[in-house]
Known about the structure:
Elements: E1 2-7, H1 10-19, E2 27-32, H2 35-38, E3 42-43, H3 51-60, E4 63-68, H4 71-75, H5 78-83, E5 92-94, H6 98-105, H7 107-116, E6 124-128, H8 132-140, E7 146-150, E8 159-162, H9 165-176, E9 187-192, E10 197-205, E11 210-212, E12 217-218, E13 221-223, E14 227-230, E15 235-238, H10 245-265, E16 272-281, E17 284-291, H11 299-302, H12 310-319, E18 333-340, E19 364-367, E20 370-373, E21 376-379, E22 383-391, H13 394-407, H14 421-425
Parallel strand pairs: 1-2, 1-4, 2-3, 4-5
Antiparallel strand pairs: 6-9, 7-8, 7-9, 10-11, 10-16, 12-15, 13-14, 15-18, 16-17, 18-22, 19-22, 20-21
Helix pairs in contact: 6-7, 8-9
Amino acid sequence: MNILILGSGGREHAFAWKISQSPLCSTVFVAPGNAGTASIATNLPIAYTDFVAIAEAIRMHQIELLIVGPEEPLVKGIVDFLRQQPDLASLRIVGPDAQGAQLEGSKDFSKQFMLRYGIPTAASKTFTITTLKEGLAYLANHPLPVVLKADGLAAGKGVIIAGTAAEAQQTMRDMLDGQKFGEAGSKVVVEQFLRGIELSVFVLTDGVNYKILPEAKDYKRIGEDDTGPNTGGMGAVSPVVFANETFLRKVEDKVVKPTLAGLQQEGIRYQGFIFIGLMKVNNEPFVIEYNARMGDPETEVVLPRIQTDFAELMVATADGDLDKITVQVSPQTAVTTVVVSGGYPDVYQKGKIISELERLDDVMAFHAGTLVQNGDVLTNGGRVLALTAQANSLENAVRKSQEAARTVQFDGKQYRKDIGLDLIRYSD
């Protein structure tokens, strides 16, 4: 079958790489794609929010399976739009409709959802511009540190952990009055700070049945030892040493099952990925957030470990047949180090020539923000490459991934040198 993947990052390159290995796949298209996807698939110069152009591409290229990578088209209703096209009724789609995508599209919606279905999460309260004065007073007496979250999509940068009441109050003013995150910050969720260790669990569901995919831990801050501002993600590791069988069973019983039951109870037919961001607090799972898609860069460590035909998994998800599939997972450890542009996550330059890619040995370079121009691979984003290594030990996977990050060259290159080191040192 012909398969279309929407997106332009490392997640979508990983999808294309995995799916192109399947005998079910004739041709893989990626819209808009990047330099990495161009080497294994056909890039289509279409924005992933241009729903009309996407529908036309599906017709033109006789697409039978669509996989939606990023959150923005899901929240804006790409699935709903395509379902309304009578001639595309037989199109298989992996991704929730707009109602289901509200799990990610609105932090307030997801918080209320968790409360309704008894899913463990941090205590919280939501404020808007009309309740700004009340919010500032609430923060004056809130235990510190305190977490403030923009309600809507903010490209992974809408979460601020404030260490003082003054910082928290200024952050709330910046979001609500200063529109720091635009419409995404029109509501602010104030949340109790949880002390623990973070990880992500990924669920694939066809609306009724589900499979739990390999878990991962990502590194969100720009600087070593988790310092500096949040980014879209600077690296990831899978599996996670502190997520033992007992803990993961708690996640399934206390989080996964009630989440899926809640979606069904609310009449939401959810066919796609649910990314569950968790905090392990005293061996108990607490949900920090939901995402309505796979994580990035977590996808770049999760997919290499999945040994089951990925196209077959996607078809089963769209067809409601996940109960007929067994997910086989490699016991190896995967580590990815993200190489980013100088200045990221703030102002950064594009168009820098990337060299030494051909020198990478036994490491997969997933392209996150690149393009090809006049035969050169150029930087075209803040996050440029996710360099994934697999090995029989965490130490060896870290070493191989870091060696790759040192090898690749472009002007202004930066990366974290401590990806995975906390897990090597970890003791429960």
